[in-house]
Queue: 2 jobs
Job 1
Amino acid sequence: MASQEILRQEPGRGSFINDPKIRALFFQTLVVILLFVSIWWIVNNVIENLQRLHIASGFQFLRNRAGFDISDTPIAYTSDATYGRALIVGLLNTIIVAAAGIVLATIVGFIIGIGRLSQNWLIRKICTVYVEIFRNIPPLLVIFFWYSGVLAVLPPPRESYHLPFGSFLNQRGFYFPRGIWGDGSWLVLVAFVVALAMAWFVAHRARQRQMATGQQFPVFWTSVALIVGLPVLAFLLAGMPLTFDFPKQSTFNLTGGFQIKPEFLSLLLALSFYTAAFIAEIVRAGIKGVSKGQSEAAAALGLRSGPILRLVVIPQAMRIVIPPLTSQYLNLTKNSSLAIAIGYPDLTATAGTVLNQTGQAVEGVFLMMIAYLVLSLVTSAVMNVVNARMALVER
Amino acid sequence: MSWVRTEMTLAQPAPPGERGAYAWVRKNLTASVGDTILTILGIAIVAWILPQVINWAFINAVWTGPDRTVCATVSQGGIQPDGWTGACWAFVNAKFGQFMFGTYHIEERWRPILVAILFVVLLVPMLIPRVPRKGLNAILLFLVLPVVAHFLLVGGVFGLPHVETSRWGGLLVTLSLSFVGMAVSLPLGIALALGRRSQMPIVKWLCVVFIETVRGIPLITVLFFASVMLPLFLPEGVTFDKYLRALIGVSLFAAAYMAEVVRGGLQAIPKGQYEGADSLGLGYWQKMGLIVLPQALKLVIPGIVNTFIGMFKDTSLVLIISMFDLLGVVKQNFSDPNWATPQTPKSGLIFAAFVFWLFCFGMSRYSMYTERRLDTGYKR
């Protein structure tokens, strides 16, 4: 009797309000309705506002004449080109400064990070001071410091600083000789590619041989000899087809040579010095994260300090380092949008100009977001491949 | 016939080569040939930079003066000898009021000062662990103070003259933006993190899309979004203050980062804690609020403070949508013809950098202190 009663009560126990499934369904329906209502409301408002302000919509404007100049153009661009091309120029500038910044920041960051772990008290302190200064001030301030504090107060072109190798430094930027490759220079390129392939082959064979016989082969020095030697040989064989276009000083300006504009220079220096402070901390944490037993065991096996670092500590440290390093690379790429503050025509700056001229804010901001998201995704995809190669391979 | 020593030998001091200044130098500066070379290099760098910095910032610096002439050389139209370089602290001195308050009316500046005093009075006991009544303190600091500060700063009530936010500037904007941003982004970030780990697929995906989109784009784009697109989203006639738009942009941006930090903490809490709370019959909010979040947030204090520091630094970006925070005001004053000298930008920027550094460094040190204090010894 009693058990039957309990069984009968079972389905009705507690009201359906307390059923987590029904609750979840209810809340999610509510969220979806709210979302659609607010999207509908926003779209409605946008359409109304655009009509009122007589702003066209759609992406047709990308084919219109841009009508503004861009100071740094990696590809051919005039003010007669289209808005679409202007945005591509901006995107290329972003990629250039981000790529250069990533390389420079990584080099500086690794040096400082290893310096913070040095046995040497003085080096340790210098690196700590560097990190603590740059981590705690805004990147925009660093950019301004280089731009208006350092580069803008350099002497005018007439009184340029003369640097070695015929390069000049003045308030219009850094000038250095531009190499002009003559006939037959393709030979050098071919030699370089061949040398790379041969170096890879040597490394591969040396590894196989070491696995099979235990004998080692000086891979590093052979590769250096190949990669430097072959192109130099090809260069000599081709009859040295390289001439330099040196910057020349005239009354008011420097002509010829290759000019790096102060906008680019200050952005690059600021981004890489700022990010380097963070990379240094990541590297330090990575190396400290490898347990001391690893290097002690390697020492017990008879390895010297160089191989211990190269073969035991760094490969394990890289596993810790790469994920946060990726996010620093992404940060640097995103911070390159600060270029707008000093007038370097990166994606944000050109998109901002386009947006102001056409008034098509929705499309402009949308394109900007998509471009940065794609850049971020590509960077993380590359770094994920690197990470997968570095990661701990278990059975 | 053996002799056994009955008392212990006294401890001997370490040999002279192993203690004192000499041993320290040998161990820390000249352990090997390479080390010695590095030390010499380091000394060379310090000896090259430090005197220049000290000379520039202190010895040759100009501390007071009426206008640009004190900071310019003779050939630049000033009084300093040719070839002189030194910091122009006189510029900072003369513009100090602007750097702090922007163009806030001078006779009304007691209002931001009063807010600052209230802020410090409420913040300091909040930061000292031993002071009691943390709950009341937090309510006053995070709920009452913003309301009071709003009425005091904006005015227009109780006989206080109205001050438009376009007149706000300098450190006032930097601090108020970042304080409100912090107060908004932490709860919002916690909500997003909980949403991302929610069982409900739609809520989860909404949070994921929001977090990943915002984290993938630069803050400037978010600020553009807030300043250019927000007005388009609203019906005609409804307008937002520019300050409020920047505030929304900065808070949303920081919230996305905060969400990821909090998610890290939530993931680090062992499953047994969630299950234990469930088996005690706690509901979702009780489980999260009483069991999981207190532990999770404690774990991620460094991450939260890092996000705060990042946000404090990021407020300087509002100058791109033409609002004048500390950096913006400093930069704006470079073009003042009364003070334009080659030394002015450097001096102003270094002053701004020092202020930013002070706040960020303070925050990071406080977080390290808290981390040590709250370390319950889970980590082995």
Note: Residues 22-60 of chain B form one domain.
Job 2
Amino acid sequence: MEKDFDKKALTDMYKDKFLAPENEKRQVAAPDGSIIEIDPLDDYFCQERPKELKPRKGAVEKFLNWARAESLWVLGFGTGCGSIEIPPLVTPRFDMYRYGVQMRPTPRQSNVFIISGYLSVKTLKRAIRSYEQMPSPKYIIALGSCTINGGMYWDSYNTINRLDHFMPVDVYIAGCMPRPEALLAGFGKLKELIKEGKGEKANEYARNFDWYKANQKKIIKDWNMPDFNW
Amino acid sequence: MKDFLKDIESRFQTTDTIQQKECLAFTTVDKSRAIAMVTWLKENAGYSSLILLTAVDWIEDGVFQLTYLLNNPENGNEIGIRVGIDREGATMESAHHLWENMMTYQRELKEMFGIDFPGSPRVDESFILEGWDDIPPYRRDFDTKKYSEETFFPRPGRKTNDPTQYMKSKLYPKD
């Protein structure tokens, strides 16, 4: 799985060509009046690799896993046609609040990311960025057959085929589209996994970070964001 | 509508005029007169609303066919102006000064078909394909299946059945 991967060379290659305007080096006036030069890619983002979270001992970890399983906060980021299945979940008919599942507006507050359907390359870039900003432990639910093998977009020039090469997936929900009931079942499955201590995909992401990054950079050709988005 | 089509035929030497129904017609005009005709339709004939600008790749003829679809809000008539342009080094005069939203269509055509519209605002910025480095994907010589297989890590094991053969083998296994 691990491959030789020269992060620095890749970043430098794309740095000049595609650098987003907000990430360009610029001079800024500090509060004390002095002019300082900042390089957002280096200064605004943490340069440390993601770390694996080691489990606590015995009953403490069990308690923590129970707590994690009962408060799944979902990032409000709809990525495909499947995002239309999420509004019914919030309404009284399905009511996901019963299960401790609720929507959150920002990645910093959430720990579950539902990839709801196909991902175009443009969206994948935003999805990766959002995922990396979520605090660990974090989980991904992949909704619909598009995330498994591309679904009906398997031969498209612009949508990815399998999600697990770019982001670690905890639970797949098959179907095109899965009904909200299936999504609730997926949450149930995710809870089981977390309570058994198997919701370890964030750690897997940290372990195989270079492999994931190499795959992401193969697809996203205008890599104009920092490698470490946290 | 018939008189109107005759009128524009005499004005702009349009050819291949087809009237699809009472309120919809398509006509073909030479590239050099196209923008003049669109301008005239907008300013003088009441076709003030742009519905869309789209392109078709006639690879066998070496031609991109642009269609300007215009609507006349007063009587509800619609007219499509078809313009053939060379596939090699495809360029077309920009019409962004007539409708503001034209620049978005032109930007999309630049990205998807590689048709250049010199002078159109932001036409060189990427629209939805960020950092695309292959030939434009809507051209018919672009093989989307091959590109997808080479790029997007296809999951092995996907196979498709010919429906006729599959149903035959299911329903009449003895034959």
Note: The interface with chain B takes residues 18, 120-122, 125, 148-150, 154-162, 165, 215, 218-223 of chain A (CB under 8 Å).
